[in-house]
Amino acid sequence: MVPEKFLPPAADSRGVRIALIFALVAERLGGHYEHGIWLTEAQGASLIAQWLERTRRNLPLAERRQLSDLSDQLARRIAASVSREAGLYISHELGEALDPAYQSDIALSVMAECEQLLDGALAA
């Protein structure tokens, strides 16, 4: 039996949801700037399921779709507000920041945006 302190947080915890939004924003921006495509809500929800499955966790489809939608809103807002060069840089920074050892002010700023989005959605 694995001691409780070594178990990952529940998939529906606030921190995990924020991290999932962040990871999807990075994925969406990467797809947009590298391939000229935007993931659909369903594709984002499927990615979340795959990521959670690696740690034997899951979220209901409705919650995965909500997180996917929130990440789409933020990724499109970022893309619409910066130049292509800045967007490429942001996309790169977010991809690198998926490694917890990588420190980035841009990633921290986007993480704060993810947190605000989630809090707003939960309050609605």
Helix tally equals: 5
Q: Tell me the structural class.
A: mainly alpha
Low-confidence stretches: none
Could you tell me the radius of gyration in angstroms?
14 Å
Largest sheet: none
Order of helices and strands: HHHHH
Mean pLDDT: 93
N-to-C span? 39 Å
Q: Would you report the number of β strands?
A: 0
Question: How would you describe this protein?
Answer:
It contains five helices and no strands. It has one domain. It has helices at 14-35, 41-53, 61-81, 84-97, 105-123. With 124 residues, the chain is mainly α. The mean pLDDT is 93.
Features:
mainly alpha; globular; 124 residues
Quick take:
Helix content is 72%, strand content 0%. The protein is mostly helical and 124 residues long.
Helices, strands, pairings?
Blueprint (H helix, E strand, L loop, with lengths): L13 H22 L5 H13 L7 H21 L2 H14 L7 H19 L1
Helix pairs in contact: 1-3, 1-4, 1-5, 2-3, 3-5
